[in-house]
Design brief:
This protein is of the alpha/beta class. 49% of the residues lie in helices and 12% in strands. A seven-stranded parallel sheet has the order 3-2-1-4-5-6-7, sandwiched between helices. Helix 1 crosses helix 8, helix 3 packs parallel to helix 4 and helix 4 runs parallel beside helix 5. The structure holds nicotinamide-adenine-dinucleotide. Nicotinamide-adenine-dinucleotide (NAD) binds next to helix 1.
Length: 294
C-alpha cells in the first residue's frame, strides 16, 4: 500500500508499546488510527495525546480473544472513519516457564491472545477490505520468538511461530484479493509487555498461581527499558507496508542467530540423506515436493 494518506488503520493492543508506536507512525503519514485495546481507559488517554499531535485518532474497547469483540471493533471503526485499509494484529502477552510447570490457563491465555486474536483480526477485516476495493494490508505482530525458540519461552514462541506461519500462507491467499500481509518480528523493544499479566482474566483462565513479585517486575522493567524505541519500529513498519515486505525485522543483529537455526535444520536434512531407512525409497519418490515451493 503505497499511499497511506487519508486511509484508516485499526491497531490491536494500540494503547501501549508497539501498537501505540505504530499508531503514531501511521498517524504521521496522514492515516486515521483506531486504537483497539482491552484497556479502554488507557486507550482513551492515548487518543488525546495523538490528537494533540494533529493525528485523527479514536479508540474502542476490544478483547482480541473474542471474535464478537473484534467484530464490534470493526463496526465502530467503520462508523468512525468509513473504511478500514490497514489492520495491525498486534495485541500480545507473554507466558513461559519451566517444563511441566506452565499452568494450563497460561497456555490457553497466550494462545487465545497471540494466536487466535490474529485469526479473528484477519477473518473479520479481510472481507471488509475486499468490499471497498481500495486494497488493504495486514501487519501481524510475531517476534524474533517466531524464528528462534529460547528455552523457557515455549508457549510464547509456539504462538509467534504460528503467527509467522499463518502470515506466510495468508499472504499468498490474499494477494489475489489486493490485500497484503506482513509479519513484524522485533527483538527487545522498550514497552510494557513485562507487566502483561495484569490483563490475564482469572474467570476465563483460572486464578493466577504466579502472583507478580514486585522486585522481579522491576528487574524486567529495567531490562525492557534497554530495548529499542518502539517508534523506530513503527517507522520501519511504515516503510515495509509501502514496500509490501513479508518479513519486517527491526533487530538485524539476530540475522546470525536465525541463520544458525537454519543451519541446524539443514544438518537434519543432510543426516536424513544418508539414512539407510530412507535410501530404500525409489529415487523419484524421495524427490517429491508435495507441499510445493514458495
Ligand atoms: N516488547 C518487545 O520486546 C516485543 C518483542 C517482540 C514482539 N513483541 C510483540 O509486540 C506486541 C505488542 O506488545 P508490546 O511489547 O507493545 O506490549 P505492551 O504490553 O506494551 O502492549 C500490549 C497491549 O496489548 C493489550 N492487550 C493485552 N491483551 C489484550 C486483549 N486480550 N485484547 C486487546 N488488547 C490486549 C494491552 O492492554 C496493551 O495495551 C505483542 O504481540 C508482543 O508479543 C514485543
Amino acid at each position: 500500500m503505497k499511499d497511506l494518506r487519508g486511509k484508516t488503520a485499526f491497531i490491536t493492543g494500540g494503547a501501549s508499546g508497539l501498537g501505540l508506536a505504530m499508531a503514531e507512525a501511521f498517524g504521521h503519514e496522514g492515516m486515521n488510527v483506531m486504537l483497539a485495546d482491552i484497556e479502554a481507559d488507557v486507550a482513551r488517554e492515548k487518543v488525546e495525546a495523538l490528537r494533540a499531535k494533529q493525528i485523527r485518532a479514536d479508540w474502542v474497547k476490544v478483547d482480541v480473544t473474542s471474535r464478537d469483540s473484534v467484530r464490534a471493533g470493526a463496526l465502530a471503526t467503520v462508523a468512525a472513519f468509513g473504511k478500514v485499509h490497514l489492520v495491525a494484529n498486534n495485541a500480545g502477552v507473554g507466558a513461559g516457564g519451566v517444563f511441566g510447570e506452565v499452568p494450563e490457563g497460561d497456555w490457553d491465555w497466550v494462545i487465545d491472545v497471540n494466536l487466535k486474536g490474529v485469526v479473528y483480526g484477519m477473518e473479520v477485516f479481510a472481507p471488509l477490505m475486499q468490499s471497498h476495493g481500495e486494497g488493504g494490508h495486514f501487519v501481524n505482530t510475531a517476534s524474533m520468538a517466531g524464528h528462534i525458540s529460547p528455552a523457557g519461552m515455549e508457549p510464547y514462541c509456539a504462538t509467534k511461530f504460528a503467527v509467522v506461519a499463518m502470515s506466510e500462507g495468508w499472504r499468498e491467499q490474499l494477494a489475489p484479493r489486493g490485500i497484503g500481509v506482513s509479519v513484524l518480528c522485533p527483538g527487545v523493544v522498550s514497552t510494557n509487555i513485562y507487566a502483561g499479566r495484569r490483563n490475564r482474566p482469572a474467570d476465563a483462565y483460572g486464578p493466577d498461581g504466579r502472583p507478580v513479585d514486585p522486585a522481579a517486575l522491576e528487574q524486567q522493567r529495567e531490562w525492557m527499558a534497554g530495548g529499542i524505541d518502539p517508534l523506530i519500529v513503527g517507522q520501519r513498519v511504515v516503510e515495509a507496508v509501502r514496500d509490501d515486505d513479508l518479513y519486517i525485522f527491526s533487530h538485524v543483529e539476530y540475522e546470525s542467530v536465525v541463520r544458525e537455526r537454519y543451519e541446524r535444520v539443514m544438518a537434519g536434512f543432510e543426516k536424513s540423506k544418508a539414512s539407510p531407512a530412507l535410501n530404500t525409497l525409489p529415487g523419484d519418490r524421495r524427490l517429491d515436493v508435495p507441499l510445493g515451493r514458495r
